[in-house]
Structure formats: structure tokens, C-alpha cells
Amino acid sequence: MPALRDEPNNLLTLPSTPAVSLSIRASAVVFADPRSRALRDLIVQVAPSDANILIIGETGTGKEIVARQIHATSRRAKGPFAAVNCGAFTENLIESELFGHEQGSFTGAVGARPGWFETAHGGTLFLDEIGDLPLPMQVKLLRVLQEREVVRVGSRTPIPVDVRLVAATNVDLQQAVQAGRFRADLYYRLRVVTVALPALRERPGDILPLAEHFIDVYGRRLQVDRALGEDARQALLEYAWPGNIRELENLIHRALLVSSGDEIRADDLNLHQIALPEPAPIPDDLAPVPDDHLREVLDELLARNRSDLFDTVMSELVRAAYAHSEGNQVQAAEALSLSRNTYRTLLKRYGLLSGTGRSSRVDREARAQLLRDERAS
What we know:
The chain is of the alpha/beta class. It contains 17 helices and twelve strands. The protein has helices at 34-46, 63-72, 91-99, 116-119, 135-147, 173-178, 184-190, 207-222, 230-238, 244-258, 266-269, 271-274, 292-303, 309-324, 329-335, 340-349, 361-376, and strands at residues 5-7, 11-13, 28-30, 53-56, 81-85, 124-128, 149-151, 158-160, 164-169, 193-196, 227-228, 263-264. Helix 14 packs across helix 17 (361-376) and helix 15 packs across helix 16.
């Protein structure tokens, strides 16, 4: 496997041609911000062991790059690294993909094929979006981790495997366990070590170094030489980055295509079209009087300097609207002056909704439990 490139300024990038990868979310991670440097120190500390690791973080924060760095600095660095997105396969195919199959074991199985566990033998297996793994497969994965052997589909012969597992998720697995969507025993086996990857908005010191990196990468590709103007730098720092590093990369790529001259200006970034819409201004004579109790609570929280304050407040607001509307997404969205699609995105972000389409029985039970919890609190 091509090694991660450890570049100046503590920048890690994915190899240009990864040998075994089905999931690439962000192509670079930088350790410039104090929170990122603490993350780097944790990686250095836990990488040499063979302990299972659970990486948690929003989509686009660089979870696969962190997993690759853990592998590259471990005792398994000379072994293979395999990356698999658990949400990329149907429930019927995921068992064959992970554990392999024998010839004739199902329609289309024209030959025997090893699964990803066998492919990663002697190295590291990265299971991205582990929260999307169906419950029946969670049972089988737990058995593989306990017995350290796999049985291919269509076979009864166990095959020993020596694999270090690194899993990642952008959903709250604790909530998934409480809702019955994820097995508690598998959760505790996966999270021997938990690596929390902050969202890009929570590590502002990384934004400009990453932007400079992407300007260099795409500038060479497009054969243009431009720098960030001061107004563009300020706009990047003020943006909330819901799409994290992947969004930043795409935005810089676009800016280089549409800009002219020697500098990228704030208008070239087009951030006003990407950010969530802001509410219309309210005339001063119609502005509501602030809720004194709410202001006191917010002041108290701000005084604690919580790094996750924005997400905490947003999560509770989304939950409260969901409970108040008794699970009606349209009414909850209207109560928050959001579109239904935006509200559904927030539900998924905070682990209150899984999948798409008609809700499953598990989802209905999860919502019912959520409402019971809200009413009891």
C-alpha cells in the first residue's frame, strides 16, 4: 500500500492511487490547530498497539486519512491496508464482501473469492460507516472479532485471520445502541480506543493551511498561479463548513476555475450560495424581547468554554422540535423555519433518523423511545 505522505506543516494526504480503497471522503488533513495537534499526539500514542479503534466524526473530516496514519505508524505498517464503506453494499452482498464466498455459493459466484478480512490479513481493515452495518451482519462481525477467523459464504471451513480493525462512523453509536439499531456488545468491542475527529469549524487553525494546500494541488493541475486575497481568507474563517474538508477542497477547486488575476477574492468562493440561508432581518419595532431564562442558560454554557457548544445546542433544538411535533418532520421543520430536506439532514446528523424512504420498524421504535425520553425529562 502506498504510504501516506507526511508533508511540511504536519499535512497528511491520501496516496494518489490507493491500492485498496472503497471510501475516500477527504484527501488531506493538517495538524495546525491546537485541537488537531492533540489528535496527532493521540494517534502517535495508540497506533503501535493492536487495539481496535473507533473513529468518530462528521462526513468529510478525514476519518480515512486518520485510519491510514494509524496503520502507517503501527507495527502492521508493512502489511496491507483495506478500506471498505459498509454503506456501499446491499445487505445481501455485504457478507460476501467482508468474509468471501466459494464458487457456486450464490447466483453469480462463478469462482471462489476472498473477502476483505482475508485481504487485510497481517494488516489493518478500515470499516467506514460502521453504523450502517445491518444487525445480522453485526452478529457475524462480532463473532469474527472474537474468534479471529472467517467462514466464507458457501463454506463450513474457518479461515484464521490476523487483522487489526479500525472502524469509523458519523452517527452517534451510543444512541443507535439505545434505539436498538446497533449491538451494545459490538459497540464496546469496537471502541477499545475512541478517536474523536473534530469538525473543521471546530479547528479553525486548519482552514487556511488546508486551503493553501488545495490551491497548490489544483493550481498545478490547472496551470494557474493564484493566492488567497485577504477578504477570501476572512470569508473562509467565518464560514461554518457543514461539508468539512471535502467541501473546502471542492470550493477551492471551483474558485480557481472562475477567478481571474493573481488573487482569489471572496466573491470567487461563492460562499453565500453554499451556506444555510439566514432568516430575514426583523424590524426593530417588531423584534421579540429576549427570553431571560434562555439568555442565562446560554451565558452559563458560554462561560464553560465548551468546544462542542454549537453542536450540543443544535442537537437539543432539533430533538425538541421532533418531540414537540410528535415525530412529524414537516411540522418540526416549520417550527424551526427550515425546509423539510434541511431538517431531515439535521435528523440524520444527530442520529435521529437512519436511511431513506419509508421508516423501518426499528426507526419507528427509535422515535417512540426518543419521544418517551423527552416527555420524561
